[in-house]
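Friendly challenge for the regulars: who can give me the structure tokens for this chain first? No prize, just bragging rights.
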Amino acid sequence: MKKASLLTFATALLLVGTLSITSCGPSESDLEALKAELNDLNNLNDLADELEALEDEIDFSSPEIDELNQQIEEDPENADLYFDRADAKSDVGDYEGALADYNKVIELEPENASAYNSRGICKDDMGNYKGAIADYTRALDINPNRANSYNNRGVSKDNMGDYEGAVEDYSQAIKMDPNYESAYYNRGIALANLGEYEEALVDYDIALELDPDDVDALVNRGSAYRKLREHDKAIADFDHALRLDPEDVDAYINRGNVYYDKRDYEAAKSDYNQALELNPYSSLAYHNRGLALYELGENRRALRDYDKAIELNPEYWKAYNNRGIVKDDLADYTGAIEDYTKSLEFNPDYDLAYYNRGLAYYALEKYDQSIKDYDMVLELTPTDVDTYYNRGLSKVHGGDKAGGCQDFATAKSMGDPDVQRLIDKYCK
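First reply, four minutes later:
Bragging rights claimed.
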């Protein structure tokens, strides 16, 4: 029986918008931290009250907004005042209020391209990417020479997974402004998402020539180097990023990923530990530390890390799969099947979860169910030789010797070096 397939991790590529919002008072991360604790403590009612109180404490006011309120009362048709107040509201995280003010600016000045661009940023911050794209497009209709609107539209397309469209917009921004550092950086991310890592490196190099202290560009260039298995260069970039910002969680996680690739699991674990000290609510850091612990033979601790990753992100299908593998190793096949099934609930086309569940069913001698899972694997990945090998075993033990021998023959024709012994044992 071929072993279970451990899904490692996707590189934590960062998509950083060109304009970020800084909140005042309790932040969104504070709220998320508290919500995570709700899943971990027994006194849920008290904590729920605390969460509600924290949400009520968020204060969207500021002296600047108070002053603008007064000025608008005195001059209610002044578009510039609404524009300034919209920007001020965005700065404190009041996106709904900012949106209303941008709407007012556009009502007063329907051809104000800057207002459409800024409203697009606000919509992107609110997760309304289609609405943001429409606003950036309108801004470009009014003024086709706005490089920042092309860049911002690219960010929204990136957020929607339209990486080809994002590359086109970033390229147009760069054509208009060859020194546009953010556009090079963002295009590098889009190219990396398309798997074009060599091209991404070119853009990250240019971005870092324009801004040598761009920590995010260093982290993403390191991630691209990792994908190209240039591990020493990747580590050098992450080291540099951490010298510039010793509290950059993504740099620790990604450097840990490189150490994991190099099979230096202790070093990987150390970096994930550091990431979790800085951000104890990172499901990715818990998940990846679980991988390292599993490789170090610390199955119980790995199990706890996967539990925590899933607690923080209940739809983390990779974590369900990998937790299932640990349960498999601990001979908890029923628990493993539950985890693989949960993984498939969130990603129905996940071939590894079908494969691993097939192994668990085989261990429980549920050969028919095992065969069904292997059938799904081969529907998704028809050239998976290990699946033919394992499905052949399930068929033989399930009473279909002819079918099993046919699968063994297929595995042999695909170059499996181990299947001949099964042919000799079952098919002679």
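The chain has 24 helices and no strands. The longest helix spans residues 44-57. Your move, everyone else.
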